[in-house]
User: Fold this.
Amino acid sequence: MKLRVSRKAHFNSAHRLFRKEWSDEKNQRIFGKCNNPNYHGHNYELIVHVTGELDLETGFVMDLKELSDLIKREIEETFDHKNLNLDVPEFADLIPSAENIAVVIWQKLRPFIPQDKALEVELYETARNFVSYKGEN
Ligand SMILES: Nc1nc2c(c(=O)[nH]1)N=C([C@H](O)[C@H](O)COP(=O)(O)OP(=O)(O)OP(=O)(O)O)CN2
Assistant:
């Protein structure tokens, strides 16, 4: 029997959307207010989904306490109250758009999720803007 279990988390981060090699005019045209050089913050809401076979002995697809600890250690401690552009090495040369943040989160969690389970990350940048990523397979 296959089921999906999910864990919600959140973090607050600052970012700026821009490309160093583009002019101020082009960054402003493409990224608008998200290109504010003084940065701006979002209250990100994260939902991590793990899909797999139900273990009939434990009644678990995956221990949600273990998933919660993993998200705290790998994501919240790295992203919460940080400037993504300046403090998180993955975004030194990668625009911290919602799409790229979701992919980075997936890549950071994937090694710790059992191989036989599928991982999907859903990230809300605002209440109305959200993205999801489930890897390339
Ligand atoms: N494809 C993407 N487009 C945009 C991203 C992104 O990450 N991926 N990011 C932004 C801004 O950073 C931000 O999310 C925009 O916020 P805003 O337009 O203010 O959205 P709200 O939901 O808060 O407000 P509305 O009034 O509903 O627009 C822009 N684009």
User: Anything to note?
Assistant: Helices lie at 24-31, 64-79, 84-87, 98-109. The chain has a mean pLDDT of 97. Strands lie at 2-15, 40-53, 82-83, 118-124, 130-133.
